[in-house]
Amino acid sequence: MPRVYLHEFVDVVGTRRAQYQHHMTANWCPEAGPLRRQRCFGVFSVVGSTGRWPQVVNLWEYDSWDDLAHNFSVELVGAGHRDPMLERWWSEAASFRSGGFDRVLVAHRDSPGIEQWCARGGTGAVAYLHELVRTEPGAAPEVLDELVARAASDRARHGIELVGAFRTALRSHDEAIVVRSVRSWEDWADFETVADDAPVPLPPGASSLQRILLVDAELSPLRIGRQPTASDRRPIDEI
Question: At the topology level of CATH, where does 4-227 sit?
Fold first, then answer.
């Protein structure tokens, strides 16, 4: 059974990105993770020169659709459709963000889970390529197969490694997302030079590709090689 993910683009208020990311990791994961049967896969900042800003990307991992359904059953309660056990957390989070856009994703069979990355101690990346690929209806699974296969070539040539590969659910199989790690800024520049000079054609069935850059939040599991804990917490005004 493939893993399921929540992929969140979150618009952050003003200069409060670091505070929001700390609230999303150290202040959320220790209690909410086990309660909601979810794991934090990654929390990232969007490099504003490549995409919308100020914006954060969160990726939450579930072992199955049943676990995602459990998450919703915990969250969508009460008059405000918010978990009353986390009322204080929700109130504080509202001061850091103004809105966003979420997707439900299904992992490709060759997409590593966060426990695999933590066993390796994280990715060691300076940045990540986040690629959103739109396809003809029904073509996303085959396009994703091709993108994953191509990732092996980019790893050998540029040191850019596949971190996660997903297709978007709740749609007509017409969208895929690939996240890859970059080990140095020199590698990124080399990759983009080649991609700009001689772009590789999109796989059959793909209609467009949008690439943005991400960097790890301070307590992202892909950076620290573990889930955030309560011992990581600091007063928000010190972030």
Answer: Alpha-Beta Plaits (3.30.70)
